[in-house]
Amino acid sequence: MTEIAQELNLKPLVIQLLINRGFETVEQIKKFLNPSDADLNDPFLMHDMQKAVEKIQAAIVAEKKIVVYGDYDADGITSTTLMYETLEQLGAEVEYYIPDRFKDGYGPNKDAYQRLIDGGAELIVTVDNGVSGIEAIQYANERHVDVIITDHHELPQKLPAAYAIVHPRYPGQDYPFGELAGVGVAFKLACALLDEVPQEMLDLVAIGTVADLVPLVSENRALVTFGLKMLQNTQRPGLIALYQVAGLTQSLINEENIGFGIAPRLNSLGRLKTGSIGVKLLTTLDEEKAQKIAQEVQQLNQKRQQLVEETTVAALTELESRRNNHLVNLVCHKGWHEGVLGIVASRLVEKTGRPSIVLSAFDNNAKGSGRSVVAFQLFDALDGHRDLMESFGGHHMACGLTVKLAKLDELQSILDQEAKKQKLDTIIKPSLKVDAKLSFNELDTELLTDLKKLAPYGNGNSKPVFAFSDYKVYGAKLIGQKKNHLKISLGIKGKKIDALAFSIGEKGNAIVADSGPLKFVGQLGQNVWQNKVRPQIIISDLLYQGLAVIDQRAKKLNQSMFTTKGTYVFFNEKLYYQVKDYLPASAGIIIGMNTPLGNLKTENLIFVDCPPSLEVFVAVLRKVPVALATLILYPYHPVYADGMPTRSDFAKTYRFVMTHPKIDIRNKLPQLAEYLAVKKELLIFMLQVFFEVGFVRMDNGLMTGCSSNQVVDLKEAPSYHSRQQLMEAEKLLITSKTDELKHWVLQHIIVEN
What we know:
GO terms for molecular function: 5'-3' exonuclease activity; nucleic acid binding. This protein is of the alpha/beta class.
């Protein structure tokens, strides 16, 4: 390995990563690190390629109208743009059509085909769709309009009777690489038509390929590598405008920028409006028009983000309110936007670890999308129950369906049954693979440069995950508009680097309060700010083995204190009823020691008021495993500041009650307190003690002293004992410094595993 590292001038760590991925010789590594034109396969090896080229060429010569029939996602938009520009370059009379997600659905649609043919279409070329369009293509044949399919999706058992099917995995064909994206297949047809590799279109190929999550190996790796260079130097006004609204630096565009910046914006068009906006953006040569369209794209993407966030929160709230043990999540609500339900389903999978189906109700039906986990074949689970649904389609990890509202309970039951059949309840969540251990001493710009040579990263060539060691944590803070991302400052011997964990949740507060017990693994990346590039770590997974005590002690309560998710502890029942309307719908509630605590678990235990004693406080701490304790500790009946009455106070009060019968306590208490020169609260306490030991009796609000020859220890009175305990609790829990309080709590709490 050392010899290979020296020969290739690469860090041994990088060579080890390559060897672990199956590249064992110098020649194999060189070929992987340096994609070339030799990695691009002959397009005519693909099924029906010659036939498709000849048909299109004949249509161009005959001046027939050609329509490119695309799709509304990023792969479909770039495929449509690429094929449209290719045919236009060849002099064809060409138009494009992007189906409407809500009216036309995915793939060939008979009504859409009818409109296109009635409008003069004489040849239809599909991109990123077609192999499932039996009915629509049969209709086109009946109208004597040929259809050329270019597609990459799974081939059904029965194929449509198209004039040509250009597909990299067509049975019996010799094409060497079957994992092209839709835009990749369209690009191969463009190469065949133009009799060259159109370099200027590789920017489109890179976007569609990365966006469609196909494996970035072999030919795809070469296409994306070349395409990224084009994206960094593109002259397309639309892309330049899109970079600007997305806050991307053109010279630094990489596959991550596509995945997180460009593709989501293009995808939002079909989700909320129409994918044709994306084709207009990518094909326009007018800079002013490009900027205007890019602004519209940005607005739609922001709306998409808002809808996803709102719907995800609502869906999670719905799931939490049920408190059930379904193995598959099924949520439905009227008014949810159909275009974002697939993303919301993915978010639910991320949050809950369970397959999720999210539906929007309309009329008597519910329509939506499902997303799964690797261990659950979602399509197979529902494929045998098509009679239950109005429509259904999908694959292992995703599906789309429409079902009657009256059958939702039956659908949930079937999902749970199928999950048990597939033993989803016994499957252990797969662990994250760590590629190597990395000391902070090894982290330098040379290593980052070498790791970049392994890019583009993606499906089939994942970015390395490292376990980091030998560093010091300098601090942690929550960032982002909603303070839901964690930024940790790490370093060693003057070398500092930031580590970021996204969507950290409530655990972020714990880590900010005490980041010492934190362990994490992550990927090395870079942060670009004001054209300056700095290394950073993106945390892939973390383990927090400590407990955070969040000090939010307050002498007054306000509504904003009751927005945090968790379990709220009230020691005074009256206080609970005063604030219960402010509590989150999903909040857990503990009232004193009246709530059974045996099986209760929560991530955040929120103590609203001060307990009557430290003993009661510890009892809750020791029975409820938590990762975070939030201490508000509102003093509902404060006593510590007033203290305990002195021996002299007790004596003079005793003498007075013994010498003044029938004292009108109801009406004369303030005057009595003033006369005795003691606080009213202390007077009330002393009279309560006297009552408990038999020194006074009450009759219709009139108090009279009762003489006794027995020696009585006032400290044995229940009220005296309770006040002592409350004073002790207030002294520690309310008046102590944060560090002292935290140290005490940590000695008594059970940390959640």
